[in-house]
Design goal:
Elements lengths: L2 H10 L6 E5 L5 H9 L4 E4 L2 H10 L5 E4 L8 H4 L5 E5 L2 H13 L4 E7 L12 H9 L9 E8 L7 H21 L1 E2 L2 E7 L6 H7 L3 E4 L1 H4 L8
Parallel strand pairs: 1-2, 1-9, 2-3, 3-4, 4-5, 5-6, 6-8
Antiparallel strand pairs: 7-8
The protein binds pyridoxal-5'-phosphate.
The site of pyridoxal-5'-phosphate has 14 residues, from strand 9 and helix 9.
């Protein structure tokens, strides 16, 4: 299957308001160009250096989504151009994004990563933590970031009932935060959940942004990375 056929097949399964982020990590810029030629503009990368290198080579109207874990010392490399940072998992990171955004005279949109999977916690806030942070004053002072929503990853399991439960849990937290918090720099609009293996379950649970890589570009080859 070719990239354009894959894109076409996936788009049929999305809702009209679902944003498709094509996850291009590990794939060559030529693959991105192919998807770009089909009208795709949102691309996701999980490594700062790879994203910065590709951004420098590719059309300037691409919207670059950083979807992986972000270290504070690397924010500066993407601050000039990143469109949306999906995996903000600490207030310390949010403060660094704010500082670098200010230096670049821009406002950077961010999603808070919520830990929803049963698997051991690697990154992300728990529900009670995110409630406490949003209620505190620490975020309102950050004028160069905007919190636009939440991001989560379900457990990597064939148990679809569990995946469904996890997505529904995140949707209900999203709805709760949306009704509770709205300010100049917090507005809950984006719910980023769903990947190649589970995006249909995510959409059914209320996702409006999916991050899909291998179903578009084919199986990933990590051998030389
Ligand atoms: C790689 C990745 C994806 C896409 O995964 P596929 O299974 O290739 O669709 C989505 N989200 C994150 C955070 C990723 O790292």
């Amino acid at each position: 299957m070719s990239i354009n056929k894959n894109l076409e097949a996936i788009k049929k399964k999305l809702n009209q308001d679902t944003v498709l982020v094509a996850v291009s990590k590990t794939y060559a810029s030529s693959a991105i160009k192919e998807a770009y030629a089909e009208g795709q503009r949102d691309f996701g990368e999980n490594k700062v250096q790879e994203m910065a290198e590709k951004q420098a080579q590719l059309p300037t109207d691409i919207r670059w989504h950083l979807i992986g874990h972000l270290q504070t010392n690397k924010v500066k490399y993407i601050a000039p151009f990143v469109f949306l940072i999906h995996a903000v998992d600490s207030i310390k990171l949010l403060k660094e994004i704010n500082k670098r955004a200010e230096q670049n005279n821009r406002v950077i949109d961010c999603l808070l990563q919520i830990h929803i999977a049963k698997e051991e916690a690697k990154f992300g806030f728990d529900a009670d933590e995110v409630l406490a942070e949003l209620a505190s004053e620490s975020i309102s002072a950050l004028k160069n970031i905007r919190i636009k929503g939440l991001m989560g990853m379900a457990t990597n399991t064939s148990d679809s009932a569990q995946v469904k439960r996890e997505f529904e849990g995140l949707k209900s937290l999203f709805d709760q935060l949306k009704s509770k918090f709205s300010s100049s720099n917090v507005s809950m609009e984006i719910l980023s959940m769903g990947m190649s293996g589970d995006f249909e379950l995510a959409i059914a649970a209320g996702s409006n942004m999916v991050r899909i890589g291998s179903s578009i570009f084919g199986a990933r080859d990590y051998s030389d990375s």
